[in-house]
Each structure stands twice: as structure tokens, then as C-alpha cells.
Specification:
By secondary structure, the chain is of the alpha/beta class. About 45% of the residues lie in helices and about 15% in strands. It is built from 8 helices and 7 strands. Strands 3-2-1-4-5-6-7 form a 7-stranded parallel sheet, with helices on both faces. Helix 1 links the parallel strand 1 and strand 2. Helix 1 crosses helix 8 and helix 6 crosses helix 7. The longest helix has 29 residues.
């Protein structure tokens, strides 16, 4: 299927690894020019080189090494691409833990990284999309928005705040050809997985291997997600064909979410 976005330009945040990288690669393979972002130069350069090899000829791949959770980092990213057609918001989630151990700074950091930063980038780009009559904004959040996990309370709270904001914004800009959706991943085989499994192991008295196997078996498809499955869904949401999909919270978790809605 031709997604109809060849020649468009996308900012993909936190895309040197994991789900962000998969989104960048999937979009690049559709002929979208990509600005990737990360905080570590070596990882960012490696991903840029991989995308250049895997993308069709003529697709532009640029990288911006910056921390987008800071004003300076966002400025650098937007200077490289002030008027994107596509924005994929992504930032690493806060660590698991017990809410009794979190102080005000822990909450401020979670809110800044997973709520206020994406809102700032949307604010800087959405009107330009509306003027062009085309825009796609995809926010990578978490399945915990719909099925909160106690140990991920910082993430639950911050991402739920972003979800509420998006519910209003998405309808405001829908008639301008701009769609805004949230992608809610379950557990994927990314570099974040070991840290989560380590916390589960410590809190349950199991080994990391036992905790990982227990978590894998809890997923109805009996495996962790492949990041490229996530990236390809992101690319579809950015397509011409997805123009009638907006204001949605789309769970991709192998069937783990137990609800009907």
C-alpha cells in the first residue's frame, strides 16, 4: 500500500533507539524525509547511518543531538525543521517505583518529559500544519493510560494529563486536515525492557529471567512486541488513508489490555 506521504517531512523525537527508531525507519521507508533526535551522539549517528542505507534513494535523513525535554533541545530540533508535516512525540518514560518514595522533583520531571514537552512541540508546529491543510501528530504514550500499573505511577499521571489535552486539541484542528492520535504500547522488546524486569524481579523476589518469562506469558500472544510492528502502525496513522482517524488512543499490546473499550 502506498501511504501517500512520500516527500513529506517528519520530526521523530527520541528516535535513536527503540520505538522511536522503529517509527523513523517505517516513515523513511515510505519516502518521508526524517529528522531524528537523541541525546547520545554515537547511538544517533548509528541510527542515521542505518536509515540512510534502508530508506529509498533521495530520502533526506538528518539528526539533531539534543535533549528535547529542555527548552534548548526543542529549539535546536525546531531550527532544523521549523515546519514539519509529521510530528512523532516520544520521550523515555519515568522509572518504576513506589509513590511513597517520589518527591516533588520526581513528579515535575515526569510531567515535563511526558506531558509538557510534547505539548510544547505541538504548540510550535500544529498551526503550520493547519495552514498547509495537512498534518499528522502521533504521541507515543503507554498502555498504562488505559490500564494503570501501580509501579508506573509517574508515567500513569503524566501521560494521562497529555491524553486529556490531546482530546481537546485534536478536535479543534480536525477540520484543518490535521490528525492527532496517541499510540499506547504495551511491552515491547526494547532497551527499556531490562530495567522494568529488574524492578519486577526485585519487588517479587524472582530472578530477572523468571520475571521476564512471567510477563511474557501474561501477554495473550505469548511474546513481547517487535518495535517494527509499532513503527508500521505509526506510519499508517501518518498516511493519507488515515485522514479520518483522529482523537484516538490506540493500544498495541498483543491483547494484554483486558477491557472492551
Amino acid at each position: 500500500m502506498d501511504l501517500g506521504i512520500k516527500g513529506k517531512t517528519a520530526i521523530v523525537c527520541a528516535s535513536s533507539k527503540g520505538l522511536g527508531r522503529a517509527c523513523a525507519l517505517s516513515l523513511a521507508q515510505e519516502g518521508v524525509n526524517i529528522i531524528i533526535n537523541g541525546r547520545t551522539r554515537a547511538a544517533l549517528d548509528q541510527t542515521r547511518d542505518e536509515l540512510i542505507k534502508l530508506a529509498p534513494s533521495g530520502v533526506g535523513i538528518e539528526s539533531v543531538c539534543a535533549d528535547i525535554t529542555t527548552a534548548e533541545g526543542r529549539k535546536a530540533l525546531l531550527e532544523a525543521c521549523p515546519n514539519p508535516d509529521i510530528l512523532v512525540n516520544n520521550a523515555g518514560g519515568p522509572p518504576p517505583g513506589n509513590f511513597r518514595d517520589w518527591d516533588q522533583q520526581d513528579w515535575q520531571s515526569a510531567l515535563n518529559n511526558n506531558m509538557l514537552t510534547p505539548i510544547s512541540l505541538i504548540k510550535a508546529t500544529v498551526d503550520g500544519m493547519a495552514e498547509k491543510g495537512f498534518g499528522r501528530i502521533v504521541n507515543i504514550t503507554s498502555a498504562a493510560v488505559k490500564a494503570p500499573i501501580a509501579s508506573l505511577g509517574l508515567s500513569n499521571g503524566a501521560r494521562a494529563g497529555l491524553t486529556g489535552f490531546i482530546a481537546g486539541l485534536s478536535r479543534e484542528v480536525a477540520a484543518d486536515g490535521v490528525t492527532v492520535n496517541n499510540l499506547l504500547p504495551g511491552i515491547f522488546a526494547t532497551d527499556r525492557l531490562p530495567s522494568v524486569m529488574k524492578y519486577v524481579a526485585t519487588s517479587t523476589g524472582k530472578t530477572i529471567e523468571q520475571a521476564s518469562e512471567m510477563r511474557r506469558l501474561s501477554v495473550p500472544v505469548k511474546r513481547f512486541g517487535d518495535p517494527m510492528e509499532f513503527g508500521q502502525l505509526c506510519a499508517f496513522l501518518c498516511s493519507r488513508q488515515a485522514a479520518y482517524i483522529t482523537a484516538q488512543n490506540i493500544v498495541i499490546d498483543g491483547g494484554a489490555y483486558p477491557g472492551t473499550l
